[in-house]
Amino acid sequence: QSALAQPPSASGSPGQSVTISCTGTSSDVGAYTYVSWYQQRPGKAPQLMIYEVSKRPSGVPVRFSGSKSGNTASLTVSGLQAEDEADYYCGSHAGSNYLVFGGGTKLTVL
Amino acid sequence: QVQVVESGGGVVQPGRSLRLSCAASGFIFSNYGMHWVRQAPGKGLEWVAVIWYDGSNKYYVDSVKGRFTISRDNSKNTLYLQMNSLRVEDTAVYYCARDPGPYYVDYWGQGTLVTVSS
Question: Average pLDDT over chain A, rounded to whole?
Answer without folding.
Answer: 95
